[in-house]
Amino acid sequence: MRKNLFIPVLLVVVTSASFVLVSFRKASTGAEEVTCHVPPSSTDGNAVTHHSTQVKGCVFKTVFEGEGLDPAFMLTTPENVLRSEERGLQWLVKAQAGDGGFGCGSHARQDIIDPHAVSTDPATTAMVGMALLRMGSTLDKGQYSEVLRKATEYVLKQVEQSPKGATNITPLTGTQIQSKLGANIDVALATQFLSNLMAKIGEQHGQYLRAKRALNTCVGMIQNGQRSDGSMQGDGWAGVLQSSFAASALESAKSVGGQVDDEALDLARDYQKSNFDANTGSVATERAAGITLYAVSSSTRNSAVEAREINEIVTKARKEGRMKADAPVTVKELTDAGVSQDRAEKLNTAYQVYEAAKQQAQREDVISGFGNNGGEEFLSFLQTGESLVIAKDQGWKNWYGQTSGRLVSIQNQDGSWNGHHCITSPVFCTATSLLILSVNNDIEHLLAQGAVKYRN
Questions:
Q1: Residue 403 forms part of a structural domain
Q2: Which residue among 33, 171, 209, 303 has the highest number of C-beta atoms inside a 10 angstrom radius?
Q3: Which pairs count as long-range contacts for 403-408, CB under 8 Å and 24+ apart, including other chains?
C-alpha cells in the first residue's frame, strides 16, 4: 500500500519542480539580451546600405570576480563606421590566397599592392584571422567561417613545421612587416591570434588542443628570443613595436593558460615601461624609428594591466575607508591600502607611466607620427585603444570617436586601407583598421586579459 501511494506522490513532486524551473526560465528570458554587431556582406558589388546583424551573447557578465559588465562602458557603433567595416571586410576576404594565407609583400617590392601577387606570410594571416574573429566569425559559424578555418590551418601548419630552436615560425624573410617591425614579428602575432582563437572556441572544440600546442610552441620561441633587457631579438626599423606585441602576446597567452614564464612577462613589460619617463615626459625612441607615437603607444599597452590593478585596489581601499577619496596614487597610499612595499613601487611606476603615456599617445602632434599613415601608425592606434579597454579606462570612448572618424575618412574607394610609408600593404593595413573599428566587439575578452584571476 505504501508503495502504491509513493508513486503518485513522487509524480506530484517532480511535476511541481518542473513547473518551477520552467517558470524561472521563462521569467529570466525577459531581460534584455546583450548583443554585438556583425557586419553583413554584399555580393552585388554595390555599397552596403542595410543594417548590421545583431548577434546575441557577444558580451557576457563574467568579467571580473563576478562583477557585471558596466553598460556605461559599452559603446554603440555608429552607422558610418558599420558601413566602413562592411566594405573593408568584403575587400579583405577576397585577398585570401589558395593556401589559406594572406600576404603583405616584400620590403623590396612595396610597389606590388595586388594581394594575390605577393607571398603569404604568418604575420599578415594572423592579423586577418584576428580581424575575422573580432568581427563575428568563428571556426564553425559566421559568413566567413571558411575563410577563418583556412587561415587558421595556415598558421597552425607554419608553427608545426618550424624547426626546434627557431625564434620565428617561418623561413620567409624580408617581408614589409619583418623589415619594419622585426624579424620575429610573425611568431608574436601568431601567438596573439592563437590566444584569441582559444578564448573564442573553448576547451571542448576539436581544434583547441592543437591550437594550445601551437600556442606553447610560439610562447617558447618568444621567450627564447628575448634579450636580457626584455626586448625581442631581430629589431626592425621600429623594433619597439615588435617587442610590444611580443609582450602583449605573452600576456594574452597567459590569460588562456599558455606556458608563460612570469619572469619573462615581467621583463617584457618592464622594457616597454622603461621607454617612457613619467616624471619628465621624455620618450626613448631609439628603437622606435625616432617616432614618439610608436614608443608611447607601446608603453601604454604594456602598463595597462597593472594600471587597472591599481585602480581596483584604490577603489576597494576607498570604499573600505583605508584611503581618502581624493588621495593621489602614491607608493605610500598603496602600502597603507595593504600592498607590499616592493609591489607598491612596481605598480605605482606602471600607473604613472600609463597615465602619462596614454595622454601623449592621443595628442594630435603625436598621432601624426611620421607625417602620414603607415602600418606602424595603424598598429600604434590599435595598441592605444586596446590599452584603454584593458585598463577599464572610460577614456576609450573618446579615443574611439576620434580614431574611428580618422580611419573612415581615409578609407579607399574599394573598401581597403593602405599605408603611405614603410608598411604600405593594403591587406595588413585593412586588417589592422578593422581590428580598431570593431574593438567594442571584444570588450569582454580584452577585460579578461587584465582580470585579477589571471595574475599571481
A1: yes
A2: 303
A3: 403/436, 404/78, 404/81, 404/436, 404/437, 406/367, 407/84, 407/381, 407/433, 407/436, 407/437, 408/80, 408/81, 408/84, 408/437
